[in-house]
Amino acid sequence: MSGAAEITAGEKRRAYTGPAFLSHGFRPFFFLGACFAALAIPLWLAAFTHGYGVGGDPMRWHVHEMLFGYLAAIIAGFLMTAIPNWTGRLPVMGLPLFLFVFTWIAGRIAMASGDGILVATADSAFLLLLAGFAWREVLNGRNWRNLPICFFVSLFALGNILFHLESHLALPFGIGQRTGLAIAAMLMSLIGGRIIPSFTINWMKKQDRHPLPSPFGSFDKVVLLATGFVMIGWVAAPDRSGTGYALLAVGILHLVRLARWRGWSTFAEPLVAILHIAYAWLMAAFLAIGASILRPDIVSPTLALHVLTAGAIGQLTMAVMTRATLGHCGRPLEAGTGTVTIYALIFLGAATRIAGPFAMSDYALVMTISGTLWISGFLLFAILYGPMLFTPRRS
């Protein structure tokens, strides 16, 4: 963009006088996403342990809302903050941002009410709007490097639509869920592969630690390409042994990628270390899903999917939410005791959920403990970070 255009965008941003909560996308979507996660899990646990229904089919509602409800909100908060930084264009703020938030909330209300064409339409609108926003901003900003993000958000919206259509059009069972999870894995691989080595290098340089992590390069492109092909295979043929072996191979590639970032050198700064831990969950998810295809008697498909969802998605989204909130709200990029507690609660919640099938005690009790730990992390985020999200940035 031209300098004049950049100045205009900056002036418009500074001229905003509305509520701080609606000044950047990360503010409402991180806060509401965390609150929704803390609400949705107890509702699901109630359905699981006592048979209380929500959204018609409780299992279907749980799967959809954690993927296309919670994760969609965090993706929106991240992109509505990151894309203006990438393009130099004005962020969505004020009334337009409120309308995005309202559309997301309407989708959550609709999904809780049952099923049908009106529910599907209300729910699908948000991700379609988000995809449109991404395409408009990236294309108008001529930010060609981030076109893959636009494709992935569009495919994520398609996965949500397939989720609603699969029972009506005799589509393969679970294709909408797998499409959404595959895109989530690709977004974590792509965005994580950019920010994790970058933040790690910056921190290690300040600490004068060497050798530095390997920056994004040819090896990372190979890993992303391989992951994309394997994810297509998993969406199309989730039960084939070839898919299982391919997932194991991709998991090993991600392990090598993670090792190249030298995460073991960052544990003095939890705000950086948590990114490596979260990516380790993603690597473990590829291995677990592959193992569940080849040896479902040892690793159940449900367990494997929770490595990806409760583990990788839960940990990486929280790592991004805390860091982005601190940075964009003008706070020091340091993880205090409260933030470390948030990370620990989500990690323990995911680990307990995965260990549940192997526990000797009552399975419902283990599920309840797991859910309590996991949602406690999100509640603590809302309590500690909510005041930052509702108040103006510190100078």
Automatic annotation (TrEMBL):
Superkingdom to which the source organism belongs: Bacteria
Protein keywords: Membrane, Transmembrane, Transmembrane helix
Presence of keyword Membrane: yes
Segments traversing the membrane: 29-47, 67-83, 90-111, 117-135, 147-165, 177-197, 218-237, 243-259, 271-291, 303-321, 333-351, 363-385
InterPro entries to which the protein is assigned, alphabetical: NnrS
Keyword Membrane applies: yes
Pfam families hit by this protein: NnrS (PF05940)
Protein name: Uncharacterized protein involved in response to NO
Phylogenetic placement of the source organism: Bacteria, Pseudomonadati, Pseudomonadota, Alphaproteobacteria, Sphingomonadales
